[in-house]
């Protein structure tokens, strides 16, 4: 008997009646179903429920769903337009009333467990708008192609998260002087369904963990976090690869060394220390690779949608967002002549540190015909986005090349 039947309570009465009831429909060729077979519909929940019909499905096992760039137009990304990146299967049963968070690790004075209610009651609540961008956002731009989801530019969101500061909770638990790193533990299920394996367990150095904006969040845009985004408790760390923002959090380990959980090894979320030739095979060791920290400067044109047709007498209003990891964006420019000349855009201050910044501008096109609008952001350190795909790396991370849209003027 397949163990999945066990978990779903079908073991004793895995009768056709039970399956039919759970599916809410007759299984027409039930007699042909292999023994112990789990109907697909029961195997994973539907990530697309509540999402915009325009979302792009990269895969459904695990679920990976991308947002088309023009859908990212909102100042605060609504849930229906948030990309989903799962490494495993989402927890099957979420018992909120018994949900706990355990703080442990070599560098914690005494291991401590909090219920969700305790966390909410004992610590002050904060709300921040945070950019969470997948480290592999833009991966499809790399040649040769690297393995992993072939994201366009839509694996990013900037929603509003509410929770308690990780630093307040860690101070309550008591950190030792030798603390170096934190690592998270989530309750999602490894693709192999092996309960001893974690699908992902990443972390950040103490300095980032203790920033004001690093939250143990229980709300997203003012409501409970949706299931696929980490209900009921999520670590959120803005400006770094979103893989450090652990979903379905049940534990935080305070480590006396760099955290060594799942996806902290090999070249996962790492880039070469010195440039390597596209396609070159370099040993996956610390000698050659470094862990990605702050994400690079980037910008998007979220209005209009690429392919826009406009009348020649119209002044086109463009807008979008720009962000730069731990830094602020200082300048956003657009070009309609393939980067020969650039025009400065209006740039707003972020809602808070680590939130994206909105930009807008108006453009007139000299004659009828085909144009491309390119956008380029520069951060407060003077780093600008490259116009061509940046350094190839085997994980296909950090493609922050200038975004462009097509416009036809007639
Ligand atoms: N527990 C857990 N946390 C996780 C993941 C996961 O698979 N399991 N995926 C990570 C990665 S790689 C990304 S990009 C973000 C995606 O967050 P989202 O699905 O809410 O957009 O969650 C991160 N946190
Ligand atoms: Mo990611």
TrEMBL record:
Q: Which domain of life is it from?
A: Bacteria
Locate the Oxidoreductase molybdopterin-binding domain: which residues?
89-261
UniProt domain Moybdenum cofactor oxidoreductase dimerisation: residue ranges: 291-409
**Per its UniProt record, what Gene3D superfamilies does this chain match?**
2.60.40.650, Oxidoreductase, molybdopterin-binding domain
Q: Where is the signal peptide?
A: 1-30
Which NCBIfam families does this one have? Answer: TAT_signal_seq
Any idea what this protein is called? Sulfite oxidase
Q: Which organism is it from?
A: Dyadobacter sediminis
